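Project channel, design review

CF: Before we commit to the Amnibacterium soli constructs, I'd like one complete example in the thread so the newer folks can see what an input/output pair looks like. Taking O-antigen ligase-related domain-containing protein.
RD: sounds good, go ahead.
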Amino acid sequence: MTLLEEARPQAVRVRPRFDDVGFWLFVAGLLANCFAGHWSSLHVPVPIDRALLLAGLALEWGRARRDGRRAPLGTAAVLLLAFAVWTAISFLGSPVRASDGLFFLVDLAVLPAVLFLSAPLVLDTARRRSAFAATFAVFGCYLGLTAITQTLPLPALVFPAYILDPSVGIHADRARGPYAEAVNNGIMLVFSGALGGVTAALAERRAWRVVGIAATLLTAVGCALTLTRAIWFGGAAALLVGVLLTPALRRRAPVVLVGLVAVAALFPLVFPGFGEAATTRGGDESPIWDRLNVNAAAARMVVHDPLLGVGWNQAGERMSEFVRLGGDYPVTAASATLIPHNVFLGRFAELGILGGSLWIAATIAAYVVPVLRRGRPGFAPWRVALLACTVCWVVVANFGPVNYSQPAYLLALVGGITASGAAVRLPAHDWRPSPHRSLRGAHRG
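CF: and here is what came back for O-antigen ligase-related domain-containing protein:
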């Protein structure tokens, strides 16, 4: 039995009510975070994304308190909060406390724990969860279309305009979206595509199902246009998870495979220069040398400070102390200034075996265990989405630092939603495989 072969839930309408001020402030803050670091390019004098997010959270926690509801403090939430505290102590004890270290602390440790804990309160109804998924499905369509218009190129259709400005951000020759960075854009394309799949599975209205399907297709095209190998591998792994765990898609796997091959064959025709650019990116060895150098240095940091590590956000500061000449590859000029390009090595290098093990335990409890537990009807698509997002994140985390705020927020929320759906166990007879085998039938009844 696959994750989607469960009891049929009640039909869900994607028809948000606009009187939920806290909820919509919260969602607006999440969406606006795609412009983090680039507000000045939009002529906005101060960042507003985190202010909206925190304002929405405050209103929603107040609503929950008035209703007599409390956030479920399960094992995953406790471990995530413990990791946030451990990381904060490591940061405060570091000799160099740069501002980016504080931002990384908040974005990668504190807020994910808070959002995971808040998901059952903010996204407490099927209506809200569906509105949340549908919003990010639309956002995925935007990211996919922006990748296409940037690549063709159709500059008049690219918003915001700074995406085309090579002086802003990096990866100006790739589909980099509002992040002005191809890897962050690629991860969010995958995550938004996964929520597009949730929308296609749960929406009652045909229009929203079409939006969900369009999001999965456009984000897949956008992933290819990022010209980033980690995103290619991570996106392919997420797509494989979605196909294998969705009965309707699994039965049509050969058709899906043929369609993907056909689309790939058309890419050089639709996007002139794509084939040459993809070949160049695939054969570029210098990024591989950079990764080998900094990751080997991170491993030496673990040996040097095995229990507590060199300190949060200190790996980049001390990289030059640990870089050595490799036997089969050169030391590049960038190696001494980069941070570890493997999240797992980076965590253990900076937080030691104790902090790294705590982070691994929290990650498994928050993003793996909820997938393995069967929960209430209507949460099966969320489990598939969580697994797809987690698999993509793990793959990409082996190739780069992945210190991006919006993917961290979104993964924490999807994990919190899925965990809340698995928190209540129903009698065994409620989990008989549904006789309705199609994707629509399995969720709409």
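RD: helpful, thanks. Residues 5-9, 424-445 have pLDDT under 50 and may be disordered.
CF: The chain has 18 helices and no strands.
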